């Protein structure tokens, strides 16, 4: 009887050790795979906060949450040659409003063109 | 159309060569830093203007946009040009948190803006429509693989807030790349620059209307775009009310704004125009919004008080480097 109890105790310990080892091995493999295959992670996507949306989001109606593939993000800066690409070109981050490379400078010169409403 | 005019580079004008014409319901102006490139540059500009009119005009029955609007509710195959124009409009809608939304087309119709503005100056009969939000830009589906755009049934796109600025950006870039000179293109005061700026920069005057001969101040920019939005030009009488063309997507009515004119500089003319239009819609919180975005801006309220933010220089500070994006808003009469 005592021998049977001792055997069962050993078996229980072995089972527990196997369970702990399995969990540890799965965790280690997970970390390895995550490092080996970058590009999928649970963090906030790059650029997700770019664009500084307006303080009060407008136009909440009509929000089509199933439209994730159709919200075209278009390159509006840096496209040379007049061939700006448009459309959903992958995970390029949210569209944003970018400051100019340098702020405007006051000018005493006569302006050949005027900006105002048209 | 005005023929190209060339001025000697040593004269007082900051940019030596100009070309001016009338197109897409406004005045188009071109400045290049190389007089030898002016004729070719003007041809490139006119081609771009013809293209944007053919693609994105809401007032031409034969435009591609009109055909798209007529088939709302089903996928419509569109050209690369319209795909780009719609994509840019949606991108700016997202970037402004929906302040600038291309689905305000039906709202524009409802307040009477269903024809070229020259036919609206005398006013129209009618009453203000009931306040109703626009369908919303998220409801527009773009499939770039199939080159199709699907509008929800009953939705009308209006690309007026972005297409003109897009044409200015495209024209300036095309001139600079193909002809190898600095170029400034202004379409109704939406200014785009590309290529190497002249030593003094591209000088732009600021006024409530782009046709005003009395710019209250001038700034020089070396790259990117500068755009102004305001209510002084495109307003008309609708029955007993006066309305204007900047529609608040949340109400479908002319924005009840505290600003008369907002001017913004940004990396592109499209972005500058989206920011200036968004600021008009947003009203008083626009100053903080523009500061957050680090966009140099000049806002004129309905009483004429001027607020400068984001490093926009005060007159008489020539040669002083602006504290880009950090200067607190400054108000002056």
Task: Offer a concise description of the structure.
Chain A is mainly α and about 120 residues long. Chain A has a domain at about 1-35.
Radius of gyration of chain A: 30 Å
The helix/strand class of chain A is: mainly alpha
Radius of gyration of chain B: 19 Å
Strand content of chain A: 5-15%
Order of strands, main sheet of chain B, comes to: 1-2-3-7-8-11-16-17-18-19
> Which fold name is given in CATH as the topology of the domain at 55-123 and 131-150 in chain B?
T-fold
Which superfamily, in CATH terms, is the homologous superfamily of the domain at 55-123 and 131-150 in chain B? ApbE-like superfamily
Oligomer: heterodimer
Question: Mean pLDDT of chain A, as a whole number?
Answer: 58
Secondary structure: helix percent of chain A: 25-40%
Reading the helices and strands of chain B in chain order gives EEEHHEHHEEHEEEEEEEEEEHHEEE
**Which pair of chains forms the biggest interface, and how many residues does each contribute?**
A-B, 60 and 126 residues
What's the overall geometry of chain B?
Answer: globular
Give start-end ranges of low-pLDDT stretches of chain A.
35-53, 56-92
| Biggest β-sheet description of chain A | none
Portion in strands of chain B: 25-35%
Class per helix and strand makeup of chain B:
alpha+beta
Shape of chain A: rod-shaped
Mean pLDDT of chain B: 86
For the record, give the distance between the C-alpha atoms at the N and C termini of chain A, rounded to a whole number. 99 Å
Identify the notable features of this structure and list them briefly.
heterodimer; A: 118 residues; mainly alpha; 1 helix; 2 strands; rod-shaped; B: 333 residues; alpha+beta; T-fold; 10-stranded antiparallel sheet; 3-stranded antiparallel sheet; 7 helices; 26% helix; globular
């Amino acid at each position: 009887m005592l021998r049977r109890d001792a055997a069962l105790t050993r078996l229980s310990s072995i089972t527990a050790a196997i369970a702990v080892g399995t969990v540890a091995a799965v965790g280690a493999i997970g970390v390895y795979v995550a490092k080996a295959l970058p590009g999928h992670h649970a963090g906030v996507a790059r650029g997700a906060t770019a664009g500084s949306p307006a303080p009060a989001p407008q136009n909440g109606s009509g929000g089509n949450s199933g439209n994730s593939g159709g919200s075209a993000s278009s390159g509006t800066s840096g496209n040379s040659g007049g061939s700006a690409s448009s459309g959903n070109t992958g995970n390029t981050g949210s569209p944003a409003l970018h400051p100019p490379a340098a702020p405007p400078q006051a000018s005493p010169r006569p302006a050949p063109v005027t900006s105002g409403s048209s | 159309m005005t023929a190209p005019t060339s001025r000697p580079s040593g004269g007082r004008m900051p940019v030596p060569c100009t070309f001016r014409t009338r197109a897409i319901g406004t005045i188009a102006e071109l400045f290049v830093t190389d007089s030898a490139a002016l004729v070719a540059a003007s041809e490139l500009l006119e081609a771009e203007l013809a293209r944007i009119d053919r693609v994105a005009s809401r007032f031409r029955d034969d435009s591609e946009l009109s055909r798209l609007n007529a088939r709302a509710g089903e996928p419509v195959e569109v050209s690369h040009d319209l795909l780009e124009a719609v994509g840019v409009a949606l991108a700016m809608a997202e970037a402004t948190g929906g302040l600038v939304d291309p689905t305000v087309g039906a709202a524009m119709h409802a307040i009477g803006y269903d024809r070229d503005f020259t036919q609206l100056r005398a006013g129209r009969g009618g009453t203000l429509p009931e306040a109703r939000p626009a369908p919303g830009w998220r409801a527009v589906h773009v499939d770039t693989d199939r080159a199709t755009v699907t509008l929800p049934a009953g939705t009308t796109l209006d690309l007026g807030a972005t297409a003109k600025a897009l044409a200015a950006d495209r024209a300036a870039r095309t001139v600079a790349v193909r002809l190898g000179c600095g170029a400034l293109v202004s379409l109704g005061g939406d200014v785009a620059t590309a290529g190497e700026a002249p030593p003094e920069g591209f000088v732009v005057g600021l006024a409530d209307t782009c046709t005003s001969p009395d710019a209250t101040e001038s700034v020089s920019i070396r790259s990117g775009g500068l755009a102004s939005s305001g209510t002084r030009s495109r307003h008309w009488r609708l029955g007993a009310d006066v309305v204007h063309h900047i529609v608040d997507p949340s109400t479908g009515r002319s924005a009840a704004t505290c600003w008369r004119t907002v001017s913004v500089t940004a990396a592109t003319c499209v972005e500058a125009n989206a920011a200036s239009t968004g600021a008009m819609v947003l009203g008083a919180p626009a100053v903080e919004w523009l500061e957050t975005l680090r966009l140099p801006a000049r806002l004129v309220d309905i009483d004429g008080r001027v607020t400068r933010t984001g490093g926009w220089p005060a007159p008489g500070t020539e040669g002083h480097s602006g504290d880009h994006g950090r200067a607190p808003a400054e108000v002056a009469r």
